[in-house]
Write a structure and sequence with these properties.
73% of the residues lie in helices and 1% in strands. The protein is mostly helical and 485 residues long.
Length: 485
């Protein structure tokens, strides 16, 4: 006999998130019972649950729904879930490093990695504003704690700053959702847009206010200018590996929600297109200009990641340019995480060459002479981030720019090209320090002391993706097209 309640529940669509939550709770319970377990045990356990969750995502059928229609596994959800889990699978093995770090002493750190993944998986697989909010808060609260676990003064400061800005973001999201509910009687994005479009998006002033609150909330997570102010300071206070993780995972989740919320209104409500156009241009341009004057490599990469967000925002502006968005972000995921991981390898207990910064440019002077392999790999990442052919992000940029031009946004394409030219300067600046300056120290261990096989695998995967992109872009496009149907 059929059970309509169980049929509507369709618990299978929740499997990836349930696996991650069970994994996180298991780690916490094991730690309570067996406190002498090593960090390697928890790291491997974390990786195992991430792999199982990835398999669950892959085997799920497209265009299925569950949890009474609130969870929807469509093409956008599936690809973004795989990107989130892939990022976590790059991030978690770093705990198997041979060097001791404060945050890895806590089993909860590995539970938080799983909670972050679960929260963002919820965000990208629903059109329900309440579930989006729950996923956002689950992931954000875990990230706050992960930053603070370093037990350093600047890490605590970064966690508090991120928490404060996150609380403001949450308030804006709740207020925007409340107005949309008052206007439409629903918290489902699809229903909201359907009912508002049915009456010609009136009253326009109320819709504008609700959209502004909701977009501002998401703009904080995406670091869109002028909502970016927390980003360089929080990245500076976080470990470089965690900063690289935050530059990728929260942003793809934010992009998916923005697409679901505003794509329906792009060509119907003129101010939505104008707003995205202005924000994309401002975000690209100002972040590049700010990156030019940075004296710390990590802060430079923080502003660099903001400029890449502006680039992808141009594809969001087009509407329906999913292939370009996902191909770009997959390439960016490997290269940007690789660059931040190289900084993490060069992490030292004390600031060697600057009172404030851990990774000033001068620290890398003459790196080619004392750590040649590290210098070559870092240069590969910089050339790729700069969009210089034939390295990986060049192909992503060309893909997005071709979409922009084909849709008639010629001036926007010119601005994108100019910003790419500006970005070349600050990426090449690090290469000049590494290859053309004299070393400040002959001790190569300040760059590569923290080495282990898992870490070298992560860096190797990122380096191969950056350097051999000409052979990998077509398969990546093929995978994206396959999942997009």
């Amino acid at each position: 006999m059929e059970n309509p309640i169980l049929d509507n529940l369709n618990i299978c669509v929740l499997a990836p998130m349930i696996i991650l939550c069970v994994g996180a709770l298991s780690i916490i319970c094991i730690d309570m019972l067996k406190r002498e377990r090593s960090r390697s045990f928890y790291a491997i356990l974390c990786i195992v649950f991430l792999l199982i969750s990835t398999v669950a995502v892959v085997v799920l059928d497209n265009n299925t729904s569950g949890f009474f229609g609130m969870i929807k596994i469509d093409a956008l959800a599936k690809i973004s879930q795989l990107i989130i889990l892939s990022s976590c699978l790059l991030f978690a093995p770093l705990a198997l490093s041979g060097k001791e770090f404060a945050e890895y002493r806590f089993a909860e750190y590995f539970a938080f990695i799983l909670f972050v993944a679960a929260g963002f998986l919820f965000m990208v697989s629903t059109t329900n504003l309440i579930l989006i909010f729950i996923g956002l808060e689950t992931a954000s609260l875990s990230l706050y704690a992960m930053i603070a676990m370093q037990s350093k003064k600047n890490a605590i400061e970064a966690a508090l700053k991120y928490f404060t800005m996150g609380a403001l973001s949450s308030g804006l999201f709740a207020f925007g959702a409340m107005i949309f509910y008052a206007l439409s009687g629903s918290v489902d994005i699809t229903v909201i847009v359907e009912r508002l479009s049915g009456r010609g998006f009136e009253p326009m002033l109320a819709i504008l206010g609700a959209s502004a609150f909701l977009f501002a909330s998401l703009a904080f997570k995406l670091s869109i200018i002028p909502f970016h102010t927390w980003t360089p300071d929080v990245y500076e206070g976080s470990s470089a590996s965690l900063a690289g993780f935050m530059s990728i995972v929260p942003k793809i989740a934010g992009f998916i929600v923005v697409i679901r919320m505003f794509e329906y209104m792009l060509h119907t409500v003129i101010w939505v297109e104008d707003m995205l156009y202005v924000l994309a241009v401002v975000t690209m341009t100002l972040s590049n200009l700010m990156a030019l004057v940075q004296s710390d490599v990590k802060r430079m990469l923080a502003f660099s990641s903001i400029s890449h967000v502006g680039f992808v925002l141009c594809a969001v502006l087009i509407g329906g340019a999913y292939e370009a968005i996902f191909v770009y972000w997959i390439l960016f995921m490997f290269v940007n995480f690789g660059a931040f991981t190289m900084l993490w390898i060069a992490r030292n207990k004390e600031n060697l060459y600057d009172e404030r910064y851990q990774h000033p440019f001068k620290k890398f002077s003459g790196m080619i002479k004392v750590a040649p392999m590290g210098a070559i790999i870092m240069a590969l990442f910089m050339l790729s981030l700069a969009g210089i052919p034939p390295f990986s992000i060049f192909w992503g940029k060309m893909y997005i720019m071709s979409v922009v031009i084909n849709n008639g946004f010629i001036y926007l394409a010119i601005i994108m090209a100019l910003n790419s030219a500006i970005a070349v300067y600050y990426y090449l600046k690090l290469i000049v320090y590494m290859f053309l300056q004299e070393p400040l120290s002959n001790d190569g261990t300040i760059y590569v002391e923290n080495t282990s096989k898992p870490l070298m695998v992560v860096v190797g995967i990122a380096a191969i993706t950056a350097g051999a992109a000409i052979f990998l872009v077509e398969p990546i496009i093929g995978i994206v097209k396959y999942y997009l149907g």
